[in-house]
Amino acid sequence: MGRARPRSEENAAASEPPELPAPPENALRFQIAVQRSRLAVILLMAGVAAIARWTGLVDFDWAGGIAALVLGVASVFVFIYLHRLAARRRWRAPLHVGWMVLDVLIVCWTVYLIDDRSPIWLVWFLTTTTAAAFVAGQRTATAVLWLSCVAYLATLVLMGHIRGFDRELAFACGRLALLFGGTYFMVRGISDLRESRRQIAALNQEKSGRLAELSRLTQELDQRGRQLERANERIQEANRAKSQFLANMSHELRTPLNSVIGFSEILAEKLDGKIEPRFSRFLNNILGSGRHLLGLINDILDLSKIEAGRMELVFEPVSLGDVVHGVTSVMHGVAQRKRIEIEVQVEPRLPAVVADPPRLKQILYNLLANAVKFSDDGSSVQVVARSDEAPPADGGPAGVVLEVVDRGPGIRQEDQKLIFEEFRQVDGGTSRNMGGTGLGLALVKRFTEMHGGRIECISEIGRGSRFLVHLPLDASSAPGRRPAGEPISFGFEVRTAEAALEERPVVLVAEDDDEFFHALSGDLEAAGYRVERARDGNEALDRARALQPASITLDLVLPGLDGWQVLKDLKADARTARIPVIIVSLVANHELGFALGAADYFVKPLDRADFLARLRELVPPAVAGRRPLVLVIDDDRQIHELLDVELADAGYEMIGASDGASGVDLAATLTPAVIVLDLVMDGGVDGFETARQLKRHPATADVPILVFTAKELRADERERLSHDTARALSKAPEDRRRLLEEIRRLVSDSASARGSA
After folding, report:
1. Looking at residue 494, what is its pLDDT?
2. Domain made up of 629-756: CATH architecture
């Protein structure tokens, strides 16, 4: 450890501010300028001394004077060399002390040579002290001043003028006291001036340094700005590439999968009961795997769209009761395979919510699918729709809660947040006992938050789990809303789906088997009929009298009144006697059925194609007359084959075009009832341009266009299509039935328009 500095040194250091180190080049120039000033002063005083000697004012030895002159001049050049050498080798030697002491000695030598006590030497005295003040500051100048006084007294002693404490000493000390006093105050003033100049120089140097730093920072900021701009351009390019990749993936993956699923469904329906059971099982495996893969692709693409901020929700009033019943009916078959009972509780008079219907159904579907998957065989799953008991934080009206309760193994407390992360499952391992990818609950959380709601999990190990989705009554102000605020309407002034449904012939299905009813009702609706249900014999009679349906399908094994008695009562009642009744039952007794007045008799398992053909003979669907022509413009031949089968079964004739140009030509020649148009096609003309050309051609301007595509549509693309098309549907399997419904609706609208004209 170093020694502590004495307090006197600290005070001295504090009294004089530290010198700011000058740049080496400037310091060298200053020292050389000082030496040149010394040279000028030495030569000037030598000249004055020579003139005084010449005129007889003073008398001194020429040899001594010349020697003093040579010493002074030589010291100037010696110190200039030393300063340059010190600057070159970066020495920090106090060279100024050497020439100051030398100047004092030269002054004293001159006094000794002149042998004069007159004040002429005081000029030299003042010069040396002033130079010290300018060069080294007040402390050095004071030291030089004391040195000069002592040297002067010593010189007087050597000259013999002072021989002790005599009168001459008293006069010399008096002169020195006066000189010291005046010189000290002059030195102090010079030092203050020097200090001010130093502070100004320091401020200027600091200002220059700050300006340089500011300039550097400005340049660095400009450079960072350019780098950020280039990075933003790369990010935008990456986003564009990602969006294009997602669009291509959506089209290239979904299109063949939709064909696989569609053909599998047709084969499964057409070959039901006609092939060996194991081949039927293989076909169902293909269908199930295709649906599973399509669901996985949809989940991944949905998650990517949410992360990219491209997921848009379309809000409209939704009945939670309808959502719950619709989803549970879809999950009924899956639950039955595990003998799981789905218990539904919907609060009476539950208000409608403003939400995005498909996403709301997906929220409930994912939760219910998880509950069925993790529940034990033979257990139950509960679905509850009720008002939210906890009022929202903003003080608005209370929302609603969707609650799904399972009887599964439960979830540990520390895992209850992980399950909502993408690709995470609670075990985190490689076992695939339960299957799944870990995307279902992640999408539930994202969709719930986009509706302005929240989801919570309440679970204990061994006691099952409860998932609660809290939703506001109006989610249209949530972050996921469409910027325009309302869904985009397409093209024509069309009726609602409810109005179109009301115009279809009504078929009353008397059936207590839920699974069979859902399968049969789906076929009937796709074929153009509106379906009503009766679960027992008494209800069948009451609803037949009230609804006056176009036809009745009757199961013979019903709770309450059996089917035979129902058939007798229907035919005995004048209000229902003329309604054709088709028996669809496990009981095979055709003779008795026809004897009691049945229009036809089918034994389960049902041949749906034959059944629908017979029903069309008895009760034509909403579209009558010759088969309407549907033009399908799509470059995928498999879509042509798939739609050809489905449209033919629904009573339509189909013709196909593989590109936009040929599609426009065929439409102008044949004038179809409806045009089904894909947006992504080879051949140079895409679906957008094809739609525009069709609407501008006089022969096809009034033909409704249905967009049927696997492309993910942006809001601007939907807006562009809204001027030329009636509706846009995806190629997902669940939308194919909607496609048939839309075709039927548009054909019916066109027929009504022609009739009114």
Report:
1. 31
2. 3-Layer(aba) Sandwich (3.40)
